[in-house]
Design goal:
alpha+beta, two-stranded antiparallel ribbon, 352 residues
Length: 352
């Protein structure tokens, strides 16, 4: 009978070790009457062998258990927060770009590195790794990929990128500090990287779209006609000639005048139109000039001939006044020389 009792105590002691060894709550006691060790619960533990458990006088918080006297431990899947005297157990939530391992630990994905809180060794964040480091005004957005900060725009390939300050062109506005967009009434022009106003239908010739739905004449032109349906809508722009065009001409382009049909231009030395003459006065051909020149010469010759005949007739009526022209034609160069010679001869004869 005593043998069975000893065997029972040994089995009970072994089972107590199995259930209580983790908590270190069983100790061995030897009774005075014998040498067989008897397992008993420690004073700081509660319960009976083999269910001895450590005693935490301040109850452990939710999602935790008492693992040693006055020491609580969070359950798996939870993490300790705060000191032992005022701890809480919060569920483990792995940060982005990580995964949970063994329900107790978070591990970053490949290409990411993590920051760990020293107090409980829990992963707080996983940041991408960029080597070499990103340039100024940028950050590592994913492994080996940099992106510019808000308000800056990427310039160049990924391997040699820079981030320049984003300046939106005229007639545009910035959205989210990263993008420029055209407001309502404007459209983007890729070749110019700008926003231009929209005018529908399109503006007439020699004008441009100055603002949404409003056309304006270009320099050198002025408003000539507005729409009957919409007084604010431009229909036509006419050129401006600051120097007034001559009669029978019109302004065809800025500071350029042109004669009306049926008129021919007369320009000054600078090439500017001076006047416009009707074609009937200016359509002279070379034949016309020859004919008119011949007629004028004929008229002059006729007049000279008539005058000569009149002079001859007058001299025939007064022969005493007409000198002997025979010696004049043979000896003297002119009639005046002949008269002078006659006077000299007459004087010589009077002295003799």
């Amino acid at each position: 009978m005593l043998g069975y009792l000893r065997l029972f105590l040994i089995v009970l002691f072994a089972s107590g070790l199995v259930f209580a060894e983790e908590y270190n709550c069983i100790e061995h006691a030897n009774p005075e009457s014998g040498n067989i060790p008897i397992p008993v619960c420690r004073r700081e533990c509660i319960g009976r062998v083999p269910d001895c458990k450590p005693n935490c006088y301040d109850k452990c918080p939710k999602h935790s258990k008492c693992v040693e006297p006055e020491k609580c431990k969070c359950d798996e899947g939870y993490v300790k927060n705060g000191p032992d005297t005022n701890m809480t157990c919060n569920p483990i939530v792995c940060p982005p770009n990580s995964q949970m391992v063994n329900d107790t630990t978070c591990k970053c994905f490949d290409g990411y590195k993590g920051d760990i809180v020293e107090m409980n060794a829990i992963l707080q964040s996983c940041e991408p790794i960029c080597e070499p480091s990103c340039p100024a005004h940028s950050f590592c957005a994913s492994p080996k990929k940099c992106e510019c900060d808000k308000g800056y725009v990427k310039n160049g390939p990924d391997t040699n990128m820079t981030c320049n300050l984003l300046v939106c062109p005229s007639n545009s506005q910035m959205v989210n500090d990263t993008t420029c967009i055209c407001p309502d009434g404007y459209q983007k022009v890729e070749s110019l990287q700008s926003c231009e106003p929209i005018c529908e239908p399109s503006c007439p010739a020699n004008s441009f779209c100055a603002s949404p739905k409003k056309c304006k004449c270009v320099r050198g032109y002025e408003i000539d006609e507005m729409s009957d349906d919409d007084p604010t809508k431009l229909n036509h722009c006419k050129p401006v000639c600051y120097a007034e065009c001559p009669e029978n001409s019109v302004c065809v382009s800025p500071d350029v005048c042109k004669c009306n049909p049926g008129y021919s231009p007369i320009t000054n030395k600078s090439g500017t139109l001076a006047s416009c003459l009707e074609d009937s006065f200016t359509a002279f051909t070379e034949t016309h000039i020859i004919i008119y020149s011949f007629l004028i010469c004929s008229v002059i010759f006729t007049i000279v001939t008539v005058i000569a005949m009149i002079v001859i007739c007058v001299r025939k009526e007064n022969p005493a006044e007409v000198p002997d022209t025979r010696s004049w034609h043979t000896s003297f160069a002119s009639y005046a020389e002949y008269e002078m010679n006659e006077n000299i001869n007459n004087n010589s004869m009077g002295k003799n």
